[in-house]
Amino acid sequence: MRHWRRLLWAAPAALAPGTAFAHASERGVVLLLPTEYYLWAGAAAVAVSFLALAFLPGRVLRRAMGHVLVRLPVPRGAIVVQALAFLAFLGLIYAGLEGTRDPLTNPLPLTVWTLWWVGLTLATAVLGDLWRLINPWSAPMALLRTAGLRPVLRLPQRLGAWPAILWMGGFAWFELVHIAPDDPARLAHAALTYWAATLACMVLFGEEAWRRQGECFALFFRLVARLAPVRLAEGGWRVSLPGAGAATGARLSVSEGLFILATLAGVTFDGFQETFLWLGWIGINPLEFPGRSAVVGPNTLGLIAVWLALSAAFALAVAAGTRIAPGAGFAESFGRLALSLLPIALGYHLAHYFTQLLTYGQYVPEAATDPLGTGADLLGIGAYFVTTSFLYDRASVEAIWQVQSGAIIGGHVLAVIVAHRAALDLHPSPRGAALAEIPLAALMVGYTVLGLWLLSTPTA
Fold it and tell me: Average pLDDT of 443-456?
């Protein structure tokens, strides 16, 4: 009888409606890649690619990566698109502040973490620098220039990309370490703070100067666009082979190379912080995880440590290559070869966030038709249902595995191609270029193994 009384008392509480909170920035599901099928095969594919390129005549690779397949005219009406993008940004901020607190029905978290950070990055790798067209600063800055605005200060060139590195580090910390990065209100305040700070710096130092050195997403998407087969260049759009812009473009500064390593460190630590290995290192029982607030300190240090470790490993590989086969100096080699990290960062970006794109992307139409959570149906889509049934079908899951492993392996193979093309310019002979690449190739093979292991190891 006592148990029946408890059930009767608990029934009203169980039936009472309440708000359900979810984490739009976390993995949607756990799909473990079968390690034994992919790990060493992926490493072998990268190693074989390096050996094949070592025997490929340099003129063949130069001609292939430098050839422009198609030239297309530049579309007009960019200012209209920029104005609409600014209005959309304001609308998303309003929805984050005034709409529902559920990140799976509020359009701000879904737009930032799924459509923008995942979707726009992948689109940029295909279609070029779209962020320059749809960022929320171009339209306000155009109005200020019309009113006669001129830069107040000159941004020192010696700073390089360090302002952008600091901002990207802050973004990575907010995404990976902050206790509630997907809370709509907190995300809205963070986005507004960054927008206002960036606008102020553009007013002080000039729009283009701050885009080059300070606006971390302008630099990030501009670098990713160098992988795109479709690129905006002088005279129009150009269609070429993927990675041609990274293989043949101007070298980066050391700080810009460190910026790429910062983005790579962020997505790497995102996968590593949830592994049993990392939780064991910081003294956390994976089966009794105390919550994100309990690991803010260790995860902050871990994020910084991964960036420092990757930077040191890459610098050592470049330095070893210059010792094996003397050619260009360390700084020039670092800047050119850092571009080869872009395909790796992009490949892991796709692999890591692919299931999130498939699952959380389905919530976007529902959030768009009812942005404030009032029961509206602005798009007229009626009853809408999200499905994850494809995650329980063997064929679908195997297809997801193939995409994830293919993204990592393909990214590393393209990285080897870009690195070899750069090495041909850095060293006087093809033999010297191949010898200088050996340390970097070994690093890429090791990172391939790490990336596939992160997709195959259990996570908390």
Answer: 84
